[in-house]
Design the sequence.
């Protein structure tokens, strides 16, 4: 997945070599998977010259019953094509910048399954693990053909040490993919699912924040969230991603009382947008945490920056709006 603007023959050659290296890096993970691994399908390479791209097909909850059983909890449908399941790490007591971070703010594992017109299934997710869990989880996933495409931080210095790792798999047996994913989860302290609780009051001026952000958000697990999706069609190798999957900019606000909030978020950017976004965030007093990729073979190439701030909710929303305006996104609603 390359979104870099190519300028001249030398740049095209460099990009081509990068694609070849990325494909080579995936090969050992697929061939080394043991008998229990899901049967993997090669990603293919991005761009029309590498074959026809495959579109996702609509599915319903009934289509994912086997996946739900393998994961040990039910999920929900997003936009008619993406089966999503959350695994909030409510077992963790994490403090960053003097703030006790809730699961809804930055400690939520999220995985998604998508069915394609060729009958295959893609798995993509973002998983929260402690530093002590990380290597054990990695070993379990590698034994089951589950790939890792990113490993990084979402928060500034925190206790205990937490890592966020992105996972990816593609095959014709969705349940086998789910079992492979579950094998890694079973090596963590991820708690069982809880029944939905009563709505939690959110002590924030949501109307004022939405006026500053120019979009409606939502409240989930006591967190106010505002999400934007890229306008472009994004592909992962030869697979077209459903709108919003793996290409969102998310702004999560945890109430701290008196209209104040802790903000944890990330922006999805093309290469030419990166510097404008970073500058806009810093002009607003927002602390930068990470700049990285989440994928290995997306087209166009995407970059993500994670950021953090504490302050008045409306002022924080005003501070991040220029970063939103510097990217080609629309509100997810």
Sequence:
């Amino acid at each position: 997945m390359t979104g870099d603007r190519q300028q001249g023959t030398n740049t095209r050659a460099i990009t081509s070599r990068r694609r070849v290296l990325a494909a080579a890096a995936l090969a050992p993970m697929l061939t080394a998977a043991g008998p229990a691994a899901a049967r993997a399908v090669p990603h293919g390479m991005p761009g029309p010259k590498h074959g026809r791209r495959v579109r996702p097909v609509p599915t319903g909850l009934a289509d994912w019953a086997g996946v739900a059983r393998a994961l040990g909890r039910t999920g929900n449908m997003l936009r008619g094509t993406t089966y999503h399941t959350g695994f909030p790490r409510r077992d963790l007591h994490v403090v960053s910048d003097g703030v006790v971070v809730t699961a809804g703010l930055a400690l939520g594992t999220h995985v998604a399954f998508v069915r394609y017109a060729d009958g295959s299934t893609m798995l993509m997710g973002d998983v929260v693990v402690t530093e002590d869990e990380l290597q054990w989880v990695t070993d379990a996933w590698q034994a089951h053909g589950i790939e890792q495409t990113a490993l990084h931080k979402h928060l500034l210095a925190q206790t205990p040490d937490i890592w966020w790792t992105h996972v990816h798999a593609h095959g014709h047996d969705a349940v086998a993919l789910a079992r492979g994913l579950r094998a890694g989860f079973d090596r963590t302290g991820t708690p069982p699912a809880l029944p939905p609780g009563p709505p939690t009051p959110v002590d924030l001026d949501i109307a004022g924040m939405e006026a500053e952000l120019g979009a409606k958000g939502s409240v989930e697990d006591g967190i106010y969230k505002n999400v934007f999706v890229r306008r472009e069609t994004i592909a992962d190798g030869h697979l077209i991603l459903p709108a919003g999957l793996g290409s969102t900019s998310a702004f999560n606000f945890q109430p701290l009382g008196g209209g104040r909030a802790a903000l944890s978020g990330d922006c999805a950017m093309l290469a030419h947008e990166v510097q404008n976004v970073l500058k806009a965030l810093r002009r607003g007093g927002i602390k930068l945490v990470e700049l990285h990729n989440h994928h290995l073979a997306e087209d166009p190439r995407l970059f993500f920056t994670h950021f953090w701030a504490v302050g008045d909710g409306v002022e924080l929303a005003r501070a991040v709006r220029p970063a939103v305006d510097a990217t080609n996104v629309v509100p997810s609603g």
